[in-house]
Design goal:
By secondary structure, the chain is α/β, with parallel strands linked by helices. It has 14 helices and 15 strands. The protein has two domains: 3-99, no CATH class; 113-477, Alpha/Beta hydrolase fold, catalytic domain (Rossmann fold, 3-Layer(aba) Sandwich), CATH 3.40.50.1820. Helix 1 (3-20) runs antiparallel to helix 4 (76-99) and helix 3 (53-68) packs antiparallel against helix 4 (76-99).
């Protein structure tokens, strides 16, 4: 709980106790003033959130009683019931804020501050296949995050977690979005209005593709870490498969539920088409960045994009987008899939670029021959496709499994609710696993820097283990000691 939340809960408990001893008018007025004051301070400074609703209700009840109560003697039963109500409502707020805390973003470890801007893009060469209006063109929303000098970022307003994440989490977990309405009170380490750092002449570029029903902001800890180490990262929202995508003119495109299919093969072919659209999105974004590198209408990125060092990574459907983009577009030099599938050309071709695949321990259990429960991301064609991709690759491959992770562990969800989603580790350690291996992979293949994390087991991350069958470096396996 935040400090003013604690104070407000304590003030309500004290007010309820004092109310039971029949305070005189002066004390009642002081109690009313205290309740109003700390409720207002909490709302203005920390902002109201749904988790504190029991305390807000208690404040309202206390105010009504304090304003209208008479000096008649209250029965012992009424006093007892009032005390029980106070304890229940106060405990409710404490429990809800404990379950969904107002967290602090882990500090990025690199030398750069982080700037950003958002942009609507329209691909005039492609029609939107899911739009209700015939002839609509494919349009995207992207965010560009870029390195900024620390001095230039000082004093600038820190961007907060975007409100879009609440709806995305709601769609993924089936939890009412109002529960996450407080997320836009959480500051990130990102600023707007700052220039790209001149410390380097240009920077390697990474594209990020989120999962189905998610948003380009779903993995801010990984994005911040990469940018702080000198990458320009572009997050893409893919309309109709991402969560609600809101454009600058106010119109929005909501996630469109997949139709029902009679066979797994029909669903498979549907995903081939869907991932193909997303891979085309990634190539179109890279086309746009190429134009901006010559003439950026925003006046920020011109000449700053190192288009000889471009990578892509993504989670779930975004991981599938990553793999398919590598198969279709040779301009991408490396790719990392956070538990994505393999739909499209990638399941038949041989990847030319370095490729890393990270799987959660929970999903990995689905592939055991005697497994009775299959993870939601399991599908029958996955294993042969994975085997083809990892064994036919013409470049280095890594296959890493993380015990204690489940499918959504690759996002920032462990920070949002450590008690529900951290799964036996601290939320900071949880997000550090994803961001550290992602950074190590791209530092190795876009910057040419040797990385200890890619060489074998790590004492820092004992949960992570390389699979010796699918991890191959120039026909040599990663050293995997017990």
């Amino acid at each position: 709980m935040r400090i003013l939340e604690w104070i407000l809960v304590l003030v309500t408990i004290v007010a309820a106790i004092l109310m039971l001893v029949h305070p005189k008018r002066g004390m009642r007025m002081a109690m009313i003033a205290a309740l109003i004051l700390f409720t207002t301070l909490h709302g203005v400074i920390e902002q109201f959130r749904l988790q504190m609703l029991p305390t807000y209700l208690l404040v309202l009840v206390l105010l009504v009683i304090l304003v209208v109560r008479q000096n008649n003697h209250r029965s012992w039963i009424k006093a007892t019931l009032s005390s029980i109500m106070v304890l229940i409502l106060s405990a409710g707020s404490v429990a809800l804020t404990w379950l969904l805390p107002a967290f602090t973003m882990p500090e990025p470890t690199g030398p750069y501050a982080i700037g950003t801007f958002s942009q609507r893009l329209m691909d005039e060469s492609r029609e939107e296949t899911k739009s209700p209006e015939a002839g609509d063109k494919r349009e995207l929303m992207i965010n560009v995050w870029y390195p900024v000098d620390q001095e230039a970022a000082k004093g600038l307003y820190l961007e907060h977690y975007p409100a879009e994440l609440g709806e995305a989490i709601s769609l993924v977990f089936g939890i009412p979005p109002q529960v996450f309405s407080y997320l836009d009170t959480i500051p990130t380490h990102v600023v707007t209005g700052a220039k790209v750092s001149a410390a380097e002449s240009h920077y390697p570029v990474l594209l990020f593709s989120p999962g189905v029903r998610s948003a380009r902001f779903q993995s801010m800890t990984a994005i911040e870490e990469l940018v702080s180490h000198g990458y320009i990262v572009v997050g893409i929202d893919h309309p109709y498969t991402s969560a609600r995508v809101t454009f600058p003119d106010g119109h929005a495109v909501a996630y469109k539920t997949d139709p029902e299919f009679g066979t797994s093969q029909e669903l498979y072919q549907y995903n081939v088409k869907g991932v193909g659209i997303r891979a085309a999105d990634a190539s179109f974004v890279l086309d746009t960045l190429t134009l901006w590198n010559s003439h950026d209408p925003n006046g920020l990125l011109q000449g700053k994009l190192d288009l000889d060092r471009v990578g892509i990574f993504g989670h779930s459907y975004g991981g599938a987008t990553t793999a398919e983009t590598l198969a279709q577009d040779d301009r991408f030099s490396a790719g990392l899939s956070l538990e994505g599938g393999f739909w499209g050309e990638v399941s038949k071709a041989a990847l030319k670029q370095p490729f890393m695949y990270i799987m959660s321990g929970e999903t990995a259990k689905s592939f055991a021959p005697d497994a009775t429960e299959k993870d939601n991301v399991f599908y029958p064609e996955f294993e042969p496709d994975l085997d083809h991709v990892m064994t036919h690759s013409l470049n280095d491959t890594y296959y890493l499994t993380v015990d204690g992770f489940f499918h959504q562990s690759f996002t920032d969800i462990s920070l949002i609710s450590p008690r529900m989603f951290a799964r036996g580790m601290t939320p900071e350690h949880n997000v550090d696993i994803t961001r550290s291996y992602t950074l190590a992979f791209f530092d190795r293949y876009l910057k040419g820097e040797e990385q200890v994390l890619l060489e074998g087991p790590s004492d820092r991350f004992p949960e992570a283990a390389y699979d010796t069958k699918y991890t191959s470096l120039g026909n040599e396996q990663v050293n995997q000691h017990e």
